[in-house]
Amino acid sequence: MTDREHTTAFSPRFVRTAVHALRTPLQTIHGFAYLLTQDMPRESFDQALGLIREDSGRLMAMLDDLGWRGRIAAGELTLDRRACDLGALLSRLALMFEHEQVDRFIDLRATRVPPVRVDEERVVDVLTAVLRQAARVSPPGLIKVSARGGRHTVVVRVEDAGARIPARLRDAVFRADQPVPRAWGWPEAGLGLNLYVARELARALGGDLTVGPAGAPRARRGNAWELSLPREVAP
């Protein structure tokens, strides 16, 4: 992380944005929690519970992002690196994600993937952030996930069907305090912090996280998120 990113980690603009973003789900939870104390039809009761669950989940995700941001800014990130079967990890993650997102299906293509040396939990954190972003901007259906081995790295690729991010914004979506047009789901969904944290974790693991176009060159939709990870070195 650069000195500039350290000094802007919790800038006044970011604090204002964070307060606004956190207040929104809290207001929903508070309002519907009050309604649950009143007499109301069963259908409305179930709807209120669903909205409370949805917004409390958003709130917890935001708080997780803030916690990671603080650890990264303070240089307190610790990693437990060990050999990891990435193919098996991706299979488990796909099942977990499909259970969380019932209208999404993972098209996983990751056979004969070389082992990597990483902190497995942090890899799951990074890929979960990327998959949630893909789900956020894509219509219900398939999300493509693949992995390929290189000489020194293994690359995991996640393709979404959202509005294509212009080249001028492909770095901005990972910036800690950079406004990004709402067309791509920022800042209301997680403050945009999840991708900032995800890239910082990827780099701490010895890899990187980038985004580029997916599909036809002139298409208006489709982004490819690529997570590179260091291969396990044979003894």
Would you kindly provide a written description of the structure presented here, covering whatever features stand out?
The structure is a single chain. With 235 residues, this protein is of the alpha+beta class. It folds into two domains: 3-73, Helix Hairpins; 82-230, 2-Layer Sandwich (Heat Shock Protein 90). Helices cover 45% and strands 20% of the residues. It has six helices and seven strands. The protein has helices spanning 3-7, 12-35, 42-73, 86-100, 120-137, 193-204, and strands at residues 82-84, 104-109, 116-118, 141-149, 153-163, 208-213, 221-230. Strands 2-4-5-7-6 form a five-stranded mixed β-sheet, with helices on one face. β6 and β7 form a beta hairpin. α2 (12-35) packs antiparallel against α3, α3 crosses α6 and α5 (120-137) packs antiparallel against α6. The chain is globular, with a radius of gyration of 19 Å. Mean pLDDT is 81; it is low at 1-8 and 186-192.
Strand residue percentage: 15-25%
Q: What is the number of helical segments per DSSP (H or I, 4+ residues)?
A: 6
Spatially, the strands of the biggest sheet line up as 2-4-5-7-6
Query: Low-confidence runs (pLDDT<50, min 5 residues)?
Result: 1-8, 186-192
